């Protein structure tokens, strides 16, 4: 509090100074009465009042990267964030166009007390230390033009969240333990080049064949199996895996088909095991069981198995919606974090693997979002690690010409609830793990 003007003697002997002293005293009193209490926290709301939901995640990640902590306010205003006040992050919110509110210590404490009310489905989860993020993508080694529509690459870039890129060489060289969080997108771990040769250029195919040869594998399918097993070991060892589109399906197919040849002659020049379907080992998979492999259509567009609820349909425009489940913020904190959103009904979107046939999902897998006839968003645990599978290719994607797709401009979709699910997964590893109660 400012000290009073020291003018006692002067005021008594000089009328002008006396009037000036009185003016200063009144001005000081008004300033003290009008000045707001000092802000100690920044609240980043994530409801409909947020101007850019996706960039808000980037602010939260930046705080963690600067060794700060973030309180994730589960089920409060769409899953809001609370951080300690700093002029740096107040400025960052303004620069990035992220809505925020300043709170005093009393205001923040009152909010946390409100969220701790056992009669409300709310809670506060403390996030510590930014996860080191890596994306598995062929852009590391080949033209891979189709990769410019990878939803995770798009949203990480838009949200200004840093990441590394690896491909088969780095995984086979043992680099995955350097990271906390791994993303897979429209990859084919069965070694059939995506079963869509219009998607891959000859240079892309040659790049994969060269990697297989470099590491001593006779076929790309054998090399991809080794990569799939390394990814599984990464997760079992405590890593966080987030997969979308065809990577979800083909990763499990490759693991189930270990030791079998399920690749058609159009891809590797020799025949496949006639009894391959009967020999699949579903105990080795992450999420799926009792699935049937799809026949090869000779190098054109085709799906891989009936895991995909729209098998044989290819890319297209979805017209329906899927629903996120409502989880307890206290007892089912993991799925509660992964489903934080300002909307719980989300527009469906297609991909080479669009959604998951319900009968193919293992009983120990948690379904976090479902459509009318299929599951869309799955969670599971493996060893000391955790994984999430998300069906579809791009939550806001539009169909391009032929088999190509137009990269989404996220400046047009800053409030995308479908993209928010991706970013929930990016922040998830920063929370202390709690087991689900139900």
UniProtKB/TrEMBL annotation:
<protein>
    <recommendedName>
        <fullName>Asparagine synthetase B</fullName>
    </recommendedName>
</protein>
<keyword id="KW-0732">Signal</keyword>
<feature type="signal peptide">
    <location>
        <begin position="1"/>
        <end position="39"/>
    </location>
</feature>
């Amino acid at each position: 509090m400012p000290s009073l003007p020291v003018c006692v003697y002067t005021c008594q002997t000089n009328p002008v100074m006396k009037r000036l002293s009185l003016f200063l005293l009144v001005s000081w009193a008004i300033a003290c009465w009008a000045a707001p209490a000092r802000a100690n926290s920044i609240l980043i709301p994530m409801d409909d009042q947020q101007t850019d939901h996706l960039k808000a995640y980037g602010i939260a990640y930046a705080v963690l990267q600067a060794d700060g902590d973030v309180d994730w306010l589960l089920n409060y205003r769409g899953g809001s964030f609370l951080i300690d006040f700093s002029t740096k992050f107040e400025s960052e919110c303004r620069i990035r166009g992220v809505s925020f509110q300043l709170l005093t210590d009393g205001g923040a404490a009152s909010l946390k007390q409100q969220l701790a009310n056992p009669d409300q489905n709310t809670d506060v989860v403390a996030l510590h230390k930014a996860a080191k993020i890596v994306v598995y993508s062929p852009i590391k080694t080949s033209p891979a033009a189709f990769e410019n529509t990878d939803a995770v690459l798009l949203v990480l870039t838009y949200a200004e969240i840093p990441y590394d890129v690896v491909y088969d060489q780095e995984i086979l060289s043992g680099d995955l333990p350097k990271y906390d969080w791994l993303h897979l997108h429209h990859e084919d771990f069965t070694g059939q080049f995506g079963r869509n040769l219009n998607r891959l250029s000859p240079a892309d195919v040659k790049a994969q064949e060269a990697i297989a040869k470099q590491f001593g594998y006779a076929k790309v399918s054998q090399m991809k199996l080794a990569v799939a097993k390394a990814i599984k070991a990464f997760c079992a060892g405590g890593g966080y895996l987030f997969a979308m589109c065809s990577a979800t399906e083909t990763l499990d197919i490759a693991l189930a088909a270990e030791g079998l040849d399920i690749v058609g002659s159009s891809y590797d020049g020799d025949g496949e095991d006639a009894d391959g379907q009967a020999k699949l080992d579903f105990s080795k998979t992450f999420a799926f069981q009792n699935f049937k492999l799809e026949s090869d259509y000779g190098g054109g567009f085709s799906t891989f198995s009936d895991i995909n609820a729209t098998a044989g349909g290819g890319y297209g425009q979805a017209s329906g919606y899927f629903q996120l489940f409502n989880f307890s913020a206290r007892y089912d904190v993991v799925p509660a974090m992964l489903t934080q959103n300002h909307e719980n009904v989300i527009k469906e979107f297609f991909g080479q693997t669009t959604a998951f046939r319900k009968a193919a999902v293992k009983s120990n897998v948690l379904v976090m979002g479902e459509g009318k006839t299929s599951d869309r968003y799955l969670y599971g645990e493996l060893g000391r690690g955790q994984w999430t599978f998300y069906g579809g290719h791009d939550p806001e994607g539009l169909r391009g010409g032929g088999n190509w797709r137009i990269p989404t401009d996220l400046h047009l979709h800053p409030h995308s609830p479908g993209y928010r699910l991706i970013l929930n997964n990016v922040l998830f590893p920063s929370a202390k793990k709690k087991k689900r109660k139900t």
